[in-house]
Amino acid sequence: MFVRKKKNQSGSISVQIIKKINRINKVIKTIGSSKDPDEIERLFQKGLYELPRLFGATLFDDIQEPDIDELSNDNIRIVGPNLVFGRIFDHIGFSAINDRLFKDLCISRITHPGSKLQLSKYLRENNRAEISEDRIYYFMDRLHNRYKNQTEEISFRYTKSILGGKIGVVFYDMTTIYFESDHADEFRETGFSKEGKHQHPQIYPGLLVGKNGYPIGYDIYEGSIYEGHTLIPVLERFEKRFDLNKPIVVADAGLLSSDNITDLKENGYGFILGARIKNESAKVKKQIHQLSLSEGQIEKILKPDDTTLFISYSQKRAKKDAFNREKGLKRLEKNLKAGRLTKSNINNRGYNKYLRLEGTINIQIDYQKFEDDQKWDGLKGYITNTTLTGKEMIENYQNLWLIERAFRISKTDLKIRPIYHRIRERIEAHICISFVSYLLFKELERVLAENQTNISVNQAIKQINRMYQVVFQYANGNNQKVLLKNNPTQEQIMNIINSKF
Q: Structure pTM?
């Protein structure tokens, strides 16, 4: 009876427990298979552990159980992150980046997000490697230039395979990520912050994704750039690299400008953009109000620039718009009563548009503007140059929330912000690591949903971080690693991972 490693035609290694019967090797149990050397060793050690428990010790087996009383917390290692996200990492194809530290950085961004000092401590305590904080920073200084293009190529190929081999629609959006610093430079600049951190220097990451929020690629811009100037360069870069074949571009109203629309049309792109219907011409606004839409109804208005403006109405949106208007008005009334409003508050930002100046210093609320605004409640506009129906176009546009969710996952679950790095190369490396981590996160989310587990990714991560291995030494000096038994939830997660990846 013995444990063997057998090479398969696919290049993977199967670990099996073998019993010789009449000079023929019979496979009693297959422990598992992998191409990852670390995983193969784990499977082999598991086989050694299970061997005497399957058959019992023989006269030829040197089975010496360790002294349990001598075991301590120092003998325990966290192995779940590598068993789960390491398998996903390899399956997607990121193992082509033959650098173990890159893999550790990407996985730990999901399971143990924090400083590089904390990462160094985590790797050391779990016997991954003795890697200093300085070595991690040295690696990050070169990561972006070495691996950014390769990570995008791997991500694009995988996203394309997940989406059935074709990417016909892409979604683009930007966000701001601030720094815990008052010092700006040519890259980290102050500007309009979507997070309300206007006093902090920031950068502008732009993310391009396919349907269901699967990432294609990203770019990083200085914090003061106008986001409308980033769309065409990103599209051209990825079209040249990946032969996207003029996909339909979906973006929110922040990227709506006459220059962008002209560039999209001149470059042959179909597009769906959120419309700022209150900024339309007086003629178009009159047409909108003559529509008298009911719940779920969609109508279109042909514009002189050969684009189509679709208008939809939703009672739910109308209630939300009315609630927000009331809330904004009450805040203005409260500030006016407290004397906190000055002439500088009279502008078109938000609900300040309801303010007016009487005389030279007397500030009042224009309640007529407030009432007039009611007629826009529940209306939403979309501009397109495609031949899609109104329903098809809105269904595509509504997928834009997935890219917003991608940013939310990156900022909360992956803790991409705030950024404490100052050196540009490390900032770029930080974003690259988070980009890869997001795809690993998405894949775990997908397979959990496909198997109808009702386990969220965050719940799964908590369970994954509690998968342990005990490392001990026999009396004869041989080391042994034993994977502790999983609880039912952990076993369910591992069964899915083993079957899918």
A: 0.70
